[in-house]
Amino acid sequence: MTDHGAHAFDFIHGSWRVHNTKLRDNTDPRCEEWVEFEASSEVFPVLRGVGHVDRMDVPDPPDGDPFEGFTLRLFDPVAATWSIWWSSSRRPGHLDPPMVGSFVGDQGVFLADDVVGGHAVTVRFEWLAGASPRWQQSFSYDGGQSWKVNWVMDFSRRPGVAGGT
């Protein structure tokens, strides 16, 4: 079982292959076309373990040029919550609003309000910790009454790389 506090994300440290399944245009609430692509991820702790950095490289996405993604995750010990910020080379200089939440057991849920593709949305990240972690993103266009999954990442350790098996 995952620690509910500062160590809740320790499972993701290391080097990963990331299989992505996402809606071709996750900014369009009507899109139903799914695409798949591969990425790699390197995750390491910072700030003496109360945070970590995740660099994701996507060399051949189905919807444009290669890109690099960056995630910063920080634990707030007073609130007992994690905040997650995302940025990518596709939107230089832009940092998405923080997703805020926590883990219960091996499942983490993180929420934020944003505007995506001109639509007001509530964004939900769901993490399933473990040896083969899974991340899933959903959007709600109705204040959280219903959710539409638009991106899923399945992680597997990169063998022979520091942090891998």
UniProtKB/TrEMBL annotation:
It comes from the Bacteria. This is DUF1579 domain-containing protein.
